[in-house]
Design the sequence.
C-alpha cells in the first residue's frame, strides 16, 4: 500500500532546489521536535492540542510563510510512517477506506461509505 501510494503521489516528480531543501529540512526538524514533545500532536483532538500547536516553532514558521493559498497539512505529512503503523493503527477512533486508500479520525465515528474501524480490520 505504501509503495502504491508513493507511485501515485502528486509530488513524485518534483525536484527541490538548494534553498527549498534547506527550508524543508528546517520544517522537518521543527515537526520532529514537536512530535518528540507530544507524539499525538498530529492525531489528537484538535481543541485539546490547539494551544500547543499555536505556541510551537513550527506554527510560527508556517505562519510567516507567504500564502498564495490556504495552508493545510495532511496526516501523512505530519506524522512519521512508524507512528502511523505503530500507534495510529491501534486507536479505536481511526477508520480506513480500502477503496479510497484514506484514513479518517473521529471520536464521534465515521459513517462515510466504505470506512471501517482500523481495529476491525486488524
Sequence:
Amino acid at each position: 500500500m505504501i509503495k502504491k501510494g508513493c507511485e501515485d503521489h502528486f509530488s513524485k516528480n518534483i525536484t527541490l532546489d538548494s534553498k527549498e531543501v534547506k527550508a524543508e529540512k528546517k520544517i522537518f526538524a521543527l515537526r520532529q521536535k514537536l512530535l518528540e514533545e507530544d507524539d499525538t500532536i498530529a492525531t489528537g483532538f484538535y481543541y485539546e492540542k490547539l494551544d500547543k500547536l499555536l505556541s510551537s516553532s513550527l506554527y510560527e514558521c508556517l505562519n510567516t510563510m507567504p500564502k498564495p493559498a490556504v495552508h493545510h497539512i495532511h496526516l501523512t505529512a505530519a506524522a512519521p510512517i512508524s507512528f502511523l503503523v505503530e500507534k495510529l493503527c491501534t486507536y479505536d477512533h481511526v477508520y480506513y477506506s480500502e477503496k479510497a486508500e484514506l484514513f479518517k479520525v473521529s471520536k464521534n465515528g465515521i459513517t462515510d461509505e466504505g470506512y471501517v474501524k482500523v481495529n476491525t480490520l486488524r
Summary: Residues 44 and 82 are 16 Å apart (CA to CA).
